[in-house]
Structure formats: C-alpha cells, structure tokens
Design a protein that fits this description.
By secondary structure, this protein is mainly α. The protein is about 70% helix and about 0% strand. Helix 7 packs antiparallel against helix 8.
C-alpha cells in the first residue's frame, strides 16, 4: 500500500486528481531543494502543513524501520517494539525537516524583499526547533537519570513557542495587526472569533493531553486525538491565511497588492 501511494505521487500517471498530485509533487520537490530555489507562496503552504505533521513523520520513521530492516539487523525481524524505540529516538529528528524548510524560506524571503517580518517569522521557527531539540535530548536520556530541570525547560520552550506561533497566526498570518484597516472576506466577525479561539485551544491542547488525558486514555487514542485536532486547526488556519494573502499581502509574497478580478464575457469564457 505504501509503495502504491508513493508511486502514485512520484510518477505522473493521469489518474485520481492528477493535477493536484502533480502540483503537490512539484512543491514538495522545491522544498527538498531548499535553500537553492525560488520561494513561492505555494511552497510556503506545503512546508507549513509539514510542521503540523510531526506524528505522521514519526510514524513514517517507524514504518521505514519495520519494512526495511533485515531479520539479521538489531531492528529487523518484524520486531515492532524495537522499531517503536527507533521512532521515539529519531522520529523528532525527521519531524524537524519541515521546520528547516520554513527557516530557509523565511531567510530567502528576507533577502529577496528586505521585509523584517520574515526575520520575526524566522525566530518563530527557531523557538520550535529549540523545543524539539531538547525533546530529542530527553528521549535519548536514560529514564533513571531524567533531570527535572530539563523537563521544566522543555515545558517552558513548548508553551513559549506555541504562544509565539499563536500570536503570529492571529497578527500576521491572518493580518489582524492592521486592526480595523484589514480587508475581510466575511461580513461578520464571528468566523474570525471562532477561528481565533480554536487556534489557541488547538495550540495549547498538549497541556490538556499531558496533564489529564494521557493518564486515562491509551497512547494510540491520545495520538489520534492530537493529530485530528492539529489537522483541523491547520485547515481553519489555511482558510484565513489564504484570505489574508489575497486581500492584504502582508508578507509581500506578491510584488503588487492589487489582484484583478476575473472578467467573463457573455459566452462565459
């Protein structure tokens, strides 16, 4: 199944949403070649969605271990427990890749536009990388030698990075730094209020998981719930991010602010 999905993405066979698959493959290839390519808004969207898939990338690490290791290897023979150990130790390293892409994109956009907004955005991803780096350190420390100060630092970095990301979501990605001067697609403020509350709750959902849900729910159910909430949050974020890009162009991905409307003739062409 994994091979079929991979081949469907890589090879340009004209079946099942060919245009979408082809466009996604091109954008993904652009991200892989960073920092040596021109950054477009679509590339940024693909990389940003990647930052919402740490559990998926962690599972990919497990899958690669399970299906590629030989029986003679330490992690071979279909030993799922050993591959779980590989995923816990190295899954976060794989999950760092989208953050590296976004840092490269922010740097390239700053060099191209000299807009300091991208420097602040770069700092947001640095804060996330710091949290993940110390999480990797903690995962590779002997549990019997676990340091409370390290655990406290990780909590501080996690909460701080998520607050940083939330403020960026609202003020810059959605354009509310402009206040009442922000152009809007919706006539009512209720969609924006709901999206803001949900974005904050989604960003901070890990606190509820660690303090209350993990002790009473199975790990697989907790992971599924976290992934579901994050993908829903990212989907809502994407709607208002695209709206802001189309109407306000705060991060100067376009050289001009004005986007002309499509004019159709009487024949509908």
């Amino acid at each position: 199944t994994i091979s079929i999905i991979f081949l469907s993405l890589v090879f340009p066979w004209r079946h099942v949403m060919y245009c979408s698959r082809n466009a996604f493959a091109k954008r993904l290839w652009n991200c892989i070649r960073l920092p040596f390519v021109y950054v477009s808004f679509a590339d940024f969207i693909v990389a940003d969605w990647g930052t919402s898939l740490p559990q998926t990338l962690n599972d990919l690490t497990y899958t690669l271990c399970f299906f590629t290791a030989l029986p003679s290897d330490d992690y071979g023979g279909g030993d799922s427990e050993k591959c779980y150990d590989v995923a816990s130790r190295y899954g976060n390293i794989v999950a760092l890749i989208p953050y590296y892409w976004r840092m490269c994109q922010c740097f390239l956009m700053y060099r191209r536009t000299e807009n300091r907004v991208h420097v602040i955005n770069f700092g947001k991803y640095v804060s996330c990388v710091l949290y993940m780096f110390f999480s990797i350190v903690q995962n590779n420390v002997d549990p019997s030698k676990e340091d409370r100060s390290l655990n406290g630092l990780i909590w501080f970095l996690h909460v701080g990075s998520q607050l940083y990301c939330f403020c960026w979501d609202i003020l810059m990605d959605w354009g509310w730094i402009k206040g009442k001067n922000r152009s809007s697609m919706f006539g009512s403020n209720w969609p924006y209020l709901f999206a803001t509350i949900f974005d904050f709750c989604g960003r901070m959902f890990f606190i509820l998981v660690n303090l209350y849900l993990s002790p009473i729910l199975t790990p697989n159910y907790v992971q599924w719930l976290q992934v579901f909430i994050e993908l829903l949050r990212r989907g809502i974020w994407s709607i208002f991010r695209l709206e802001n890009e189309n109407l306000n162009n705060l991060e100067t991905y376009r050289k001009i602010d004005f986007v002309p409307r499509v004019v159709m003739d009487d024949a509908g062409d």
